[in-house]
UniProtKB/TrEMBL annotation, chain A:
Organism field: Tremella mesenterica (Jelly fungus)
Keyword set includes Nucleus: yes
Pfam families, alphabetized: LSM
Keyword presence, Nucleus: yes
GO cellular component entries: catalytic step 2 spliceosome; Lsm1-7-Pat1 complex; P-body; precatalytic spliceosome; U4/U6 x U5 tri-snRNP complex; U6 snRNP
Protein name: LSM complex subunit LSm2
Keyword terms, alphabetized: mRNA processing, mRNA splicing, Nucleus, Ribonucleoprotein, RNA-binding, Spliceosome
Subcellular location: Nucleus
GO biological process: mRNA splicing, via spliceosome
UniProtKB/TrEMBL annotation, chain B:
SUPFAM superfamilies named in the record: Sm-like ribonucleoproteins
Domain Sm: 24-96
Cellular localisation: Cytoplasm; Nucleus
InterPro entries cross-referenced by the UniProt entry: Lsm6/sSmF, LSM_dom_sf, Sm, Sm_dom_euk/arc
Function: Component of LSm protein complexes, which are involved in RNA processing and may function in a chaperone-like manner, facilitating the efficient association of RNA processing factors with their substrates. Component of the cytoplasmic LSM1-LSM7 complex, which is thought to be involved in mRNA degradation by activating the decapping step in the 5'-to-3' mRNA decay pathway. Component of the nuclear LSM2-LSM8 complex, which is involved in splicing of nuclear mRNAs.
Organism listed in the record: Tremella mesenterica (Jelly fungus)
PROSITE patterns: SM
Protein name: U6 snRNA-associated Sm-like protein LSm6
Listed PANTHER family: SMALL NUCLEAR RIBONUCLEOPROTEIN F SNRNP-F (PTHR11021), U6 SNRNA-ASSOCIATED SM-LIKE PROTEIN LSM6 (PTHR11021:SF1)
Lineage: superkingdom: Eukaryota
Example GO BP: maturation of SSU-rRNA
Automatic annotation (TrEMBL), chain C:
Gene: LSM3
Subunit (UniProt): LSm subunits form a heteromer with a doughnut shape.
Pfam families (UniProt xref): LSM
Domain of life: Eukaryota
InterPro entries: Lsm3, LSM_dom_sf, Sm, Sm-like_LSM3, Sm_dom_euk/arc
Domain Sm stretches: 11-95
Protein purpose: Binds specifically to the 3'-terminal U-tract of U6 snRNA.
GO biological process: mRNA splicing, via spliceosome
Keywords carried by this UniProt record: mRNA processing, mRNA splicing, Nucleus, Ribonucleoprotein, RNA-binding, Spliceosome
PANTHER family with a match to the protein in the record: U6 SNRNA-ASSOCIATED SM-LIKE PROTEIN LSM3 (PTHR13110)
Protein name: LSM complex subunit LSM3
Subcellular localization, as worded in the UniProt entry: Nucleus
Record GO cellular component, one term: U6 snRNP
Family: Belongs to the snRNP Sm proteins family.
């Protein structure tokens, strides 16, 4: 849930998605779902010679499970907010599980 | 000995408390916390260290960890977290 | 429900929690390692790191099947999301 929300904050920003097969796709993030599937618009491929079949593709849907990395600008991310949200998320999980909270 | 069939647990162990040799895998895991262990992960790499704790996914936390690759110690880590899906087995390196 | 071992670590994820905001070393599938500042994680080990250096460990194999000496390819990223299923190991870096 944390990363679903995180990616929603990146909507309409330009990101680069690196897939597990080394293909790197840069484009504007149009939407994301709970599985971290990603829809990109206006895409370009990092190494078009190696992936000529991608030249004509303008937008795409990427299945979350094939993603290795998502690269983004440092300015698009509030790191203190992320750290707080991570700690809060952990806290909520522990409350729901009835575990020790401290 | 002519009574009804005994409890399976007592038959094997002679007692009901979960001693080192008690049956279940989770008894084993409980008993090795705090001990020196060897954790083998999928790519054939071993991690030797003091087992801080583990969870139901077999996520593992180790202290004083050494990374061993085919018989050679290549790296050490102070603390380390191993993601459970990579764990093939955990083996005790000292008596339980 | 469980005893408190080694300070505040009672489950493995606590080790990662203690590393929030700190520099960490990550080992990934595919002979990759990362170092970076940890800003977020979840139970899948999805991660967000900043000021990341990635090292890819490559062993080239020649036509005759002999292995050349291993080489390392380096890349840097200012902000990186890592999908948890590639993660093998997370370790806080002592500096």
């Amino acid at each position: 849930m944390l990363f679903f929300s995180f990616f929603k904050t990146l909507t309409d920003q330009v990101i680069t998605v690196e897939l597990k097969n080394d293909l790197c796709i840069t484009g504007t993030l149009k939407s994301v779902d709970q599985f971290l599937n990603i829809r990109l618009d206006g895409i370009t491929v990092e190494d078009p010679e190696r992936h000529p079949h991608m030249m004509a593709v303008k937008n795409c849907f990427i299945r979350g499970s094939v993603v290795r990395y998502v690269r983004m600008g440092a300015r698009s991310v509030d790191t203190t907010l992320l750290e707080d949200a991570t700690r809060r998320g952990e806290f909520m999980v522990r409350v729901l599980k009835g575990l020790r909270v401290d | 000995m002519d009574s009804q069939s005994p409890e399976p647990d007592t038959a094997v162990n002679g007692s009901t408390d979960a001693g080192p040799l008690a049956g279940s895998p989770s008894d084993f895991l409980k008993n090795i916390v705090g001990k020196r262990v060897k954790v083998r992960v999928g790519n054939g790499i071993d991690y030797h260290g003091l087992l801080t704790c583990l969870d139901g996914y077999m996520n593992v936390a180790l202290e004083e960890t050494e990374e061993w690759v085919n018989g050679h110690r290549v790296t050490t880590y102070g603390d380390c977290f191993l993601r459970g899906n990579n764990v093939l087995y955990i083996s005790a390196m000292e008596d339980l | 429900m469980e005893q408190v071992a080694a300070g505040t670590i009672s489950e493995p994820l606590d080790l990662v929690k203690l590393s929030l905001g700190e520099r960490v070393f990550i080992k990934l599938r595919g002979d990759r390692t990362l170092t970076g500042n940890l800003h977020a994680y979840d139970a899948h080990m999805n991660l967000v790191l900043s000021q990341v250096e990635e090292n890819i460990h490559i062993v080239d194999v020649g036509e005759d099947g002999t292995a050349a000496p291993p080489r390392i390819e380096r890349r840097g990223f200012e902000m990186l999301f890592i999908r948890g299923d590639s993660v093998i190991l997370v370790s806080p870096l002592l500096e």
